[in-house]
Write a structure and sequence with these properties.
Layout: E1 2-6, H1 14-25, E2 31-35, H2 41-53, H3 57-78, H4 82-104, H5 109-116, H6 118-133, E3 139-140, H7 157-169, E4 176-180, E5 183-185, E6 191-193, H8 199-209, E7 214-219, E8 240-242, H9 243-251, H10 263-266, E9 272-276, E10 285-288, E11 298-311, H11 321-331, E12 336-341, E13 345-350, H12 356-363, E14 368-381, E15 405-411, E16 414-420, H13 424-437
Helix pairs in contact: 2-3, 2-5, 3-4, 3-6, 4-6, 7-8
Bound molecules: aspartic acid (ASP) and magnesium ion (MG).
Length: 445
């Protein structure tokens, strides 16, 4: 079995959906297709959840109407058989009217989840009918029957595998299964999500659950680039990455992958391929345990970082100070990304400000606190990057750029810089020039 996940942009247009079909039908063997909602749809659904809170029924109806038009247009274009077209439209209307009823119930986390995951339900319905219309046998599976993910950080993939096998056991043999990304059943047996962008995670959870041969993640970019192509010219896709390198890049801002994507498949050593639906002939990026090449491979940036400095004379020659500080963050379930210390101060960063006020209130007792928002972590990633001579050019940046923190040596694979977000693009560009454009990347190793 191979697991193929197609993202919102892949299924966001008629051209994309046709490509998804030809990719799904090429080659032999069983395939499980994990599909996102059409691009833009989940954002509209999130908007509906906000409108429920604001009790704005007129705007909700308007969005539901637009969603119906959008999906009906796709059905019109793709499905030729009149009866199938009619039936598929009815099914989309049924999902939308169920959604309308949901919006009238008392708002809760479950209502949120039911609403925002409807895009996947609609698109998978249409895609299954489209394949059927083309004479391609397939089974559409409801992910809620087997995506039992009680613990978001550490999914029980054996349980998911069990439930999946149970779900398909009563079905006739087929090569193509289709299911929804993003949705899960949580520890309370309620519908929940894998967080925004979570369909990638669905794919690798299922990959591990089914001991898949490989997982393919299809987007509209031809793999992980060595820098952010939105801000830097002349970036290029990286042919191979190790699981650890990919995890660092995804966590530190590379938008192509949901940050948790690779974790379920690492122990099972299942390779993950990142490919472009619109240029399927290009190799993309292979993420596996066998990735070759040492040294700096890529640079990425993560925004929305807050730096917190705690300055205290009590730290001088004292022990146990850091423990007390870290316990506060732990109590408020806030992860710390970067840390630097001096004898009487510690600076650290967080990317989740939800409990910032409470945290500050508590650490205020330990010293003088400074909080700086709107920062970005720029991350240089590659196996043994700290031994890569080119990486030393990060220090040349200090001539003319203000760098708030540097984390070097925390791991062999990562060097992180904290900069004000207003300087992010220029730092990405300068670094790119210094480390990638001076010589081809292979020569650094
Ligand atoms: N449709 C969901 C989102 O936009 C999940 C996904 O596409 O990965 O976040
Ligand atoms: Mg995505």
């Amino acid at each position: 079995m191979k697991v193929l996940k197609f993202g919102g942009t892949s299924v966001g247009s008629i051209e994309g959906i046709r490509n998804v079909k030809s990719i799904s039908c090429s080659g032999t063997g069983k395939k499980l297709l994990v599909l996102s909602a059409m691009s833009g749809v989940t954002n509209e659904l999130v908007r509906i959840t906000e409108l429920i809170a604001a009790d704005d029924e007129t705007s909700i109806d308007m969005i539901l109407g637009l969603l119906e038009i959008k999906h009906f247009q796709v059905i019109e274009e793709l499905i030729e058989n009149k009866l199938l077209r009619y039936e598929t439209k009815n099914e989309i209307s049924a999902i939308l009217s169920e959604l309308k009823k949901t919006t009238k119930r008392e708002y809760s986390e479950v209502i949120y989840s039911l609403v925002v995951t409807a895009g996947e339900r609609m698109l998978t319905r249409i895609f299954s009918a489209y394949l059927e219309d083309c004479g391609v046998a397939n089974h559409l599976l409801d992910a809620r029957d087997f995506m039992q993910v009680n613990n978001l950080e550490n999914p029980d993939t054996t349980l998911v595998g069990h439930k999946f096998k149970e779900t398909v056991s009563s079905l006739t043999e087929t090569d193509i299964y289709i299911t929804q990304g993003f949705v899960r059943i949580d520890e309370n047996n309620r519908v929940n999500t894998l967080k925004r962008g979570g369909s990638d995670y669905t794919a690798t959870i299922l990959g591990a659950a089914l001991d898949a041969q490989e997982v393919q993640i299809w987007t509209d970019i031809d793999g992980f680039h060595n820098n952010d192509p939105r801000y830097v010219e002349h970036t290029h896709p990286i042919a191979e990455l190790s699981f650890e390198e990919a995890a660092e890049l995804a966590y530190f801002g590379a938008k192509i992958l949901h940050p948790q994507t690779v974790s379920p498949v690492i122990h099972k050593n299942i390779p993950v391929y990142l490919k472009n639906t619109f240029t399927p002939f290009l190799p993309g990026t292979k993420i596996s345990a066998e990735a070759t090449g040492k040294g700096l491979k890529a640079i990425s940036a993560k925004d929305g970082i807050t730096a917190i400095k705690i300055k205290s004379n009590r730290m001088l020659m004292a022990h146990g100070f850091l423990r007390k500080i870290f316990e506060v963050f732990d109590r408020h379930q806030t992860a710390i990304d970067m840390i630097t210390t001096s004898e009487i101060a510690i600076s650290l960063t967080i990317d989740d400000n939800r409990n910032l006020v409470k945290i500050i209130e508590e650490i205020d007792d330990y010293g003088e606190i400074t909080v700086e928002k709107n920062h970005s972590i720029i991350c240089l990633v590659g196996e043994s990057v700290i031994k890569d001579k080119k990486a030393s050019s990060i220090f040349e940046l200090l001539h003319d750029t203000s760098i708030r923190m540097i984390s070097y040596g925390g791991s062999n694979n990562n060097i992180s810089l904290l900069v004000d977000t207003s300087n992010k693009i220029s730092v990405l560009q300068k670094l790119h020039q210094k480390v990638f454009e001076a010589k081809p990347v292979e020569e650094f190793v």
